[in-house]
DNA sequence: ATAAAGGGTTGTGTATACAGAAAGCTTGCC
DNA sequence: GGCAAGCTTTCTGTATACACAACCCTTTAT
C-alpha cells in the first residue's frame, strides 16, 4: 500500500516529515514550525523579554494545537530563551546589558579554547583564505547594506571554521547554544561602520594566528577582540 | 470554594504541584517524575547507551501517559542524555572513553575560567576552610565507604563554592549541564584509594590558590588536576 | 531461491477533552 | 468604604483518540 502526503485538515493528522530542519513551512512538523517561529520571534525582539507565552493563544496564532506548542516551549526553556513562570505559564527570558559581561566571560572561555585547538590543528589553508577576505571586509561595510549581512556572514564563516578545526563536539555544542543569546544581545545596541571595520581587523588577526599555528596568539587575539566587542556593545547602547 | 489534592485515578486529572523539584514522588508532577526517573536511570547506567526509549513502553512502566513522557524525553534530548533517532524514536545517547578527552577539553575551559574568576573575588574564608578539609580527605577515603560518598561530597562543595564565587550565571549553567555527563563517565572506570587521595591533594591546591587570590595558579592547578583526572580515568577503564 | 509488493503491526505526531489550579471579579458583611 | 469569601474565567497538566509512517512478515512472481 502507498502513503500520500496530505495537508492537515484540522481534524487530526500530521504534516509530512522531511527530516527535522527542512525549509518549507508546509513540510515541517507542527512542533518544528512552532519552535522555529517562536525562536526567531524572540531572537529578533518581536517578542521582547517578559512577554507571556500562553499556550492557547500561541496555538491559535500559529495554527497548531497545544501539544506541539508545549514541545516548542520546552525546547526554548532548555535553551534559556524562555523561562517557566513560578506558578503558571512561560515568559520570554530577560536579557539586559547589565549581565552581558557574564555572557562575554563565558564566550571568552569557550572561544579562546576553540581558537587554541584550531591553531594546534595546523591546517592553514582555510584560515589564510578567511584572513584575506577579512582584510578586504572594509569594502563590505557600506551604507548599501545597512544590516551588514555580508560582514556577519563572513564572521559566521570564521566561527564555523574554528568550530570545525577545533574538532570538539561538546565545545561546538556549547558555543552554538551561546550564540543564540549573542544574536539577541546584538539588537540591544547600534553599530557603526568604523567599529565594524575594527572588528573585521580583529577577526583577521585571529584567522592569521590560527593559520600560523600559534595557539597563544590565537587565544590572545580572541581575548582582545571580545573585550573590544563588549565595550563597543556597551558604548553603543540604543535608547530605551 | 476549597480545592483538595486527590491522587490520580487514571481517568484524567493531575498530581499536586509542590514547586518543581519536590522530593516526594507522589507530590511531583507526572512529567517531573518521568524526567527524574529516566535521568537517574541513564546517569546510573541502568539504561545503557543505545537503549531505545519508546514512549508507549515508558508510559506503561512509569505509570503516566505519553504526554509527560514526551516532555521528559524532550528535556533529556536537550541535555544531551538522549538523542532523537533518525526516523523514529529516541535512544539513550552514547558516551565512550574515546570522546572523554573532548568532554574534558570543554570542562577545562570552563573550570579554569571559573577558578580564575573565583580567585579574583578575594574572598578567602570559604576556600581556606575547604583547603583544610581537603588536606584531611585522606582519612575519608577508606574501605568503610566504597562509594566514596564523603569524598565526592567534599569535591562537590568545592565546585559549588567556585561557582558561587565566580558569580557568573551563564558559566554556572554551562558547568551544571556538563557535570551530568561527567557523573555518567565516572561509572565507566574504577577508582582506587591512592588515586582519590591524589585527587584530593590537587583539589586542596586549587582551593589554596583561590584563597590566596592567585588566578594564574588557580587556573594552572585546575589544568593539572583535570589532566591527571583524565589519565586516571583512562587508566582505570573497567572491563567491557 | 530471491526479490519485490502488499498487508499487518506497532509507534510517533498531533489534536482534543477534561480535570485541577491560579488570577480576577463580584458580592456580601463588617 | 474596605475586606474577605465565593464564584467565574482562564490557564496549565494530563490522558486519550486518531492519523500517518516505519518496520516486519508474508506472499507471489520471475
List the helices and strands and how they pair.
2 copies of one chain form a homodimer.
Chain A: H1 30-43, E1 52-53, H2 55-62, H3 66-79, E2 82-84, E3 90-92, H4 100-120, H5 124-135, H6 149-166, H7 169-186, H8 193-211, H9 215-235
Antiparallel strand pairs in A: 1-3, 2-3
Helix pairs in contact in A: 1-3, 2-3, 4-6, 4-7, 4-8, 4-9, 5-6, 5-8, 8-9
Chain B binds a DNA duplex (30 and 30 nucleotides) through residues 1, 3, 5-6, 8, 10-17, 29-31, 54-57, 59, 64-68, 70-71, 87-89.
Description:
- The structure is a homodimer of 240-residue chains.
- Chain A has 240 residues and is mainly alpha-helical.
- Chain A folds into 2 domains: 25-92, Arc Repressor Mutant, subunit A (Orthogonal Bundle), CATH 1.10.10; 100-235, GntR ligand-binding domain-like (Four Helix Bundle (Hemerythrin (Met), subunit A), Up-down Bundle).
- Helix content of chain A is 60%, strand content 3%.
- Chain A contains 9 helices and 3 strands; from the N terminus they run αβααββαααααα.
- Chain A has helices at residues 30-43, 55-62, 66-79, 100-120, 124-135, 149-166, 169-186, 193-211, 215-235; strands at 52-53, 82-84, 90-92.
- Chain A has a 3-stranded antiparallel β-sheet.
- In chain A, β2 (82-84) and β3 (90-92) form a beta hairpin.
- In chain A, α5 packs antiparallel against α8.
- The N and C termini of chain A lie far apart (61 Å).
- Mean pLDDT of chain A is 86; it is low at 1-23.
- The interface between A and B is medium-sized, with 30 and 30 residues.
- Chain B binds a DNA duplex (30 and 30 nucleotides) through residues 1, 3, 5-6, 8, 10-17, 29-31, 54-57, 59, 64-68, 70-71, 87-89.
